């Protein structure tokens, strides 16, 4: 994630399938004009089809902070 603003940004990543994915870190603070790496891991799921994963969604919530 890239923060092009002059303020700190606090973010949180959410998914519609939290049992299927690991997001690291799920939340953090990004400094002004900085870039932050978020890793998303797909957990091994027996019996899961690709079609069921195509419906999975991710959403990033963020707000500016006065740190």
Question: Could you describe the 3D structure shown?
Answer:
With 67 residues, the protein is mainly beta. It has one domain: Sandwich (Immunoglobulin-like). Helices cover 6% and strands 48% of the residues. The protein has one helix and seven strands, in the order E-E-E-E-E-E-H-E. Strands 4-2-7 form a three-stranded antiparallel sheet, with no helix packed on it. It has a two-stranded antiparallel ribbon with strand order 1-5. A two-stranded antiparallel sheet has the order 3-6. The longest helix has 4 residues, at 50-53. The model has no long low-confidence stretch (mean pLDDT 93). It is found in: Membrane.
């Amino acid at each position: 994630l890239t923060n092009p603003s002059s303020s700190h940004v606090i973010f949180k990543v959410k998914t519609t399938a939290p049992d299927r994915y690991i997001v690291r870190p799920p939340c953090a603070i990004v400094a002004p004009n900085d870039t932050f790496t978020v890793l998303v891991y797909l957990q091994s799921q027996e019996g899961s089809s690709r079609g069921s994963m195509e419906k999975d969604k991710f959403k990033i919530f963020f707000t500016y902070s006065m740190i």
